[in-house]
Each structure stands twice: as structure tokens, then as C-alpha cells.
Amino acid sequence: MNTYMAMQTNTMLAYLSSFESAMVMAAKKDDGKMDRREQKQIEEIRRASEQFRKSLTKIKES
Fold first, then answer.
1. Has this prediction a pTM greater than 0.70?
2. Is 34 exposed, middle or buried (CB count within 10 Å of its CB: 0-12, 13-18, 19+)?
3. Residues 6+ apart with CB under 8 A from 6
């Protein structure tokens, strides 16, 4: 992977972490806490993010 692609991959990996944190804050925004539905959605987002993170890391390291 060339240097520019590696930098973009690193940027996306950092963005994923920020996105997960932003989603947690957004879930708490309306009433100050997460209900069960919001917790389930956050967990689904985290799982999807982790899969994407693993895929990007694998591609970057190959």
C-alpha cells in the first residue's frame, strides 16, 4: 500500500473511533440516558465498526 493510501486508511480508522463516540453522545442527547433500543443500536454500530476496522487493518498490513 502506498503512503497516501496508508494515511487515508489511518484517517478512516481514527474517524471510526470518533463516530462511535459521537453516536453514544447522540443517543444520550435527548433524555440524558440510553434506553434498551438505543443500546442495541449502539452495539450493532460497534460490531459493524469493528468488522470494518479489522478489514481495513488487514488490507493495510498486506
1. yes
2. middle
3. 60
For every residue of the chain, DSSP letters joined together read --HHHHHHHHHHHHHHHHHHHHHHHHHHHTTSS--HHHHHHHHHHHHHHHHHHHHHHHHHH-
Q: Where are the domains of the chain?
A: 1-7+34-62
Q: Are 26 and 38 in contact (CB under 8 A)?
A: no
Please report, as a single letter, which amino acid is at residue 35. Answer: D
12-56 pLDDT, tens digit each: 999 999 999 999 999 999 899 999 999 999 999 999 999 999 999
Place of cell 453514544: 24
- State the amino acid at position 9 in one-letter form: T
